[in-house]
Amino acid sequence: MKKIFCGNEMDKMPGWAFRIMAFMFNVVDLIKLNDKKLDPFHLQKGQTVVDYGSGTGRYIPQASGLVGDEGLVYAVDIHELAVKSAFRTIKKHNLNNVKPIRTDGKTVDIPSQTADIIYALDMFHMVKNTQPFLQELNRIIKPGGILFLEDGHQPRSLTKEKVLNSGCWVILEETRTFIKCSPIAL
Length: 186
Fold this sequence. Notes:
Elements lengths: L1 H5 L8 H17 L16 E5 L7 H8 L4 E6 L2 H14 L4 E5 L12 E6 L9 H11 E10 L5 H11 L2 E6 L3 E6 L3
Parallel strand pairs: 1-2, 1-4, 2-3, 4-5
Antiparallel strand pairs: 5-7, 6-7
C-alpha cells in the first residue's frame, strides 16, 4: 500500500491515488499555508523556473508571483491530471507566465539551457530511471543554474547516491528538506 501512495520507482501514480493526494494537500493547505515552501530557493523577478513534478499545482501561484510578468514558470509533470490541475490553477489565479508541460518521464519539451532554477519537490523517489531524468534536468538548466531536489519518500543517502552517480550534478548544500545542486557541463 505504501508503494501505491508514495510511488517509489513507479514513475506515475494511479489516477485515484493522485486524486486522494490532491484532496489531502487541499486539506493541509487550508490548515497550514504553504506560502513559505519556495523561500529557500530565492526566486527572482525575470527568472525562468521549472516546477518539475508540479502535481496538484500548489506552488505554481507563488512561483508565478515571485518571477513576475518578466519571468516564466514551467509546470512539468508526467500525470495528465497534474497538467489539467495546472491549467485550472492558471485560470483560477489568472496567471500569464505559467506554461504546463506533460513529460513522458524521459524528455521534456523545454529548450536546452533555459532554466535558472529547477525544483523537484516530493517526487524524486518516484523516478524509476534516475540517470536519464537527471541528464534531462542538466540539459534544460542554464550554466550556473541551481537544482533543488527534495528526497521525498526515500533516505537522503539514496538521493545523494543517485545524484552523484549521475555524473551531471555536484551537490552544493544540504538542508533538512532538500539538496542544492549545480550542473556539471556535459
